[in-house]
Structures are given as structure tokens and as C-alpha cells.
Amino acid sequence: MNAETGPERRARGRPRAWGDTTEQNKIKSLDRALVILERLSERGGATLTDLSEDLDQSPATVYRVLSTFEGRNMVDFDPVAQTWHIGAGAFHIGSRFLRRTSLVERARPFLRELMQKTEETANLGVSRDGLVLFLSQVETHHNIRAFFPPGTMSPMHSSGIGKALLAQMDDKEVAAIIRKHKLTAFTEHTLVTPEALAADLEATKARGYAFDAEEKNDGMRCIAAPVFDMHGEPIAGVSISGPSARIPDERIDSLGASVKETAAKLTAALGGASS
Which UniProt keyword terms apply here (predicted)? Predict the structure, then answer.
């Protein structure tokens, strides 16, 4: 007991009895503002008119939100092009997420080793809300290369890492992700039916690695494998990506073996166990 303040209070992350996630605990104006920030990040830059029409909100409301974010360096305004963009403040906050977990730090040497062995860009990603969130990347030295900066989000059905993780999920989990995000076609090779995706995921699980055959971007291929935690649950995926000319059919098996080996090493380094 503290003589001046009385009994010490246990630190809490939220008020008592506020354990639910219902609408009553949300600040609606803040939620709307974050929707504007998220949409701006998705678009990579937009005019006030574009954003207000896209979100069906008044230009005055959107402008007040953007001005508030600008004051915190969360967004920037280009007076020449009359467009708004994500600012350095948002990047700094996002980068702190990467420092929160040891996954990125532990994975870095393994990604570097994988890049050196395959001479292709090595990537690390996790599942977030039914999408792939790329956390780290070691780029190849080739002039033509894939580029997924940390923070990039990608649909799971058209991503090597996404399919590697989907293959570890049960049918209900996969179906829920399909319902939420749809099977959007990006190229003529994208898997756009549940049946085609299911067959691909079955093959992925059998061989231990996923193969993205130009399903997101024409001329680019990706090979990925899952990383597991101590309970044998998939927590991340590692991959290599590069132009199809450097990842021809005859190299897929050998490259797949290298990616699987790296995923297994990272799993062991994290104290994980293969599924």
C-alpha cells in the first residue's frame, strides 16, 4: 500500500466491463477519419473531389479530416497537382508496428540468405484481415525485380505467400476470406473460382510450397512457403519473386526446395514446429 495514494491500482489496457467490441465503444468521427486515411493510402494519392466522391462524404468533411491529419504529418498536400498523399507521420507509426515483433528481425538473415542462394527478391509476409501484409524484403541485385515495400497489402488468392497460408487453413476459413475479398481477376492466370483455388491449395499443401504463376502481375512469378509457431500454426510466409524468364518451369522444384528450407529454418529459429 502507498501511504500517499492508497492501494496501488493494477494497470489495465481498457476500462472494466469494456471487453466487448460493439459499436457503442467506437468514436464514430474518428472511425470515419481513419476510413479516409485508409482509402487515401490505397489510392496512393487523390484529389479532394476524388476522395469525397469515392467515400460519398461531403468535400468539407473530408477536407477538415485531411487538414487535421496534415497537422500531424500523417498526410501531405501537393499544391501543384492538387492531390493529397500519405505523409511521413503515417510511415513512422507503421514502422513501429514492424519493431513490435521479433519476426522481422529474426527473419532478416534468412531472407538475405535466400536471396543470395536464388538470386531473386526474398519476401516476408503475414495474414492480416484476409489479406497479405508484406513486412520485409531483401531485393535481388538484378535490374528487373519484384518490389513489395513494407506495408503493401495484397489479395491472398493471387499471392504466393497468400496461397501458402490459405493452404494451411480449413475450408471454412478459406470460404470466409473468399466471401469478404472475392476472387478478383488481375491477369488471365488468376484463379477466379473457388474450385480452381481449392485444387491449387491442395497441390500447395502436398508439395509444401505455393506457386504464383503470373496470377497477380503479368510476367512475374512467386514461390512461397509457410512459417509456423510453437503450436504448428502458420504465422507468416516467406517467398521469392521475380520475372518469369528467370523462374522458368524447370527451376520451380529446386527453387521451391530452397524456399521450403528457408521457411523451416525460420520456423526453428522462432521455436516453432512444422504443421
Answer: DNA-binding, Transcription, Transcription regulation
pLDDT at 88: 85
In the chain, the domains with their CATH numbers are 24-92 (1.10.10.10), 101-269 (3.30.450.40)
DSSP assignment string, 81-102? TTEEEE-HHHHHHHHHHHHHSH
Report in angstroms the alpha-carbon separations of 7 from 1, 2, 14, 17, 50.
5, 6, 19, 21, 55
Ramachandran assignment for 20, one of left (phi > 0), alpha (psi -120 to 50 degrees), beta (any other): beta
The closest alpha carbon to 165, from 120, 122, 201, belongs to 201
Q: What is the pTM of this model?
A: 0.68
Mean pLDDT (the chain, rounded): 88
Q: Which residues contact 115 (CB under 8 A, 6 or more apart)?
A: 121, 122, 138, 139, 140, 240
Given phi > 0 = left and psi -120 to 50 = alpha, else beta, which region is 149? Answer: beta
Q: What is the pLDDT of residues 1-34, one digit of tens each?
A: 454 445 555 666 566 655 555 566 678 889 999 9
> Partners of 238 in the beta sheet?
124, 225
Segment (H or E) for 201: helix 194-207
Cα separation of 211 and 220, whole Å?
A: 11
pLDDT in tens, 107-142: 999 999 999 999 999 999 999 989 999 999 999 887
Q: Which H or E run contains 163?
A: helix 160-166
Q: What is the band of 246 on the pLDDT scale with cuts at 50, 70, 90?
A: very high
- Distance, CA of 233 to CA of 182 (rounded, Å): 24
Q: How far apart are CA 202 and CA 274, in angstroms?
A: 17
Q: Which of 69, 180, 65, 167 is nearest to 130 (CA)?
A: 180
